[in-house]
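Incident log, structure service

09:12 report received: a user says their structure output differs between two submissions of the same chain.
09:20 pulled the input from the user's history:
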Amino acid sequence: MRTATLLLAAILVRGAFISVAANDHPAPKPGDADYPTPSPSAQHDKNVAAVKSGDFGLAMIGDSITDTLHEFGGKYAPMEAVWAKHYAPRHAINLGHNGFRTEQILWCLQNGELDFKTPPKVIVLLIGTNNSDDRHFNKVHTPEEILAGTKAIVDLIRKRLPTTKIIMLRIFPRGGDSEKGVSPPAFNSSARCIETCRRAGELTKQLADGEHVCWLDINHVFLRADGTINTDLMWDLLHPSPAGAEAWAQAIEPALAKLMGDQPIVDLQPESTTSKPAL
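09:34 re-ran on a clean worker, output below:
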């Protein structure tokens, strides 16, 4: 059975830890992936009020891919069944923001979205795809810059919530110009964007520390054997469909349940859509 790649152990090269040291990267400036960009919104205010007043065991942090999982509505309304099955029993909160990039999520977290009354046991983080999108954003970032932005988020979570475990998901794949989505609008991506996502996602695995941060690659779930997007599971070449959201949830269940200290909520699925990473 094909398995997702989980890094719970620190990466070693000839006995030395790979790290992203502060002096490896210049001080961030406005526009950088690791410079917090003010992004006030009604959604942000709602999130801050919720984390300050509620008791949550799990937080899902990310962009629209995460945002569509709960209370997004429209064609994503069927996602509520996935949320109710996998995340609601863990008293989860959705901190996804449509269209956001690392620098905006960083600002949101700095400004109240980590002010939990009780720290959650686990945070699932998926971020960075919009930083590479050269068709919808005037400025894009390199893989190394996306790594820096992701690291800034992880470092902030670790500082604010030292007892919380982090599951960092590799940036999901994107479909190219030769592919066709089945649920408009489709998000066909340039070759540059696809490669940036691939490389940035690969780089982020070095943020796994062997104790508090693990890295999970479930991208095979959304791909056909030839490497193209399976539009049954990622219907617009970027966002998971309801079936894709269930496949995503199934793929992270073993790791999530381990860190939550509960039992996996796993159905019998074809081998191509499940994974059992070793913890």
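09:41 both user submissions now match this output. Likely a transient worker issue. Closing.
09:42 reviewer note: The first strand starts at residue 5 and ends at 7. The mean pLDDT is 90.
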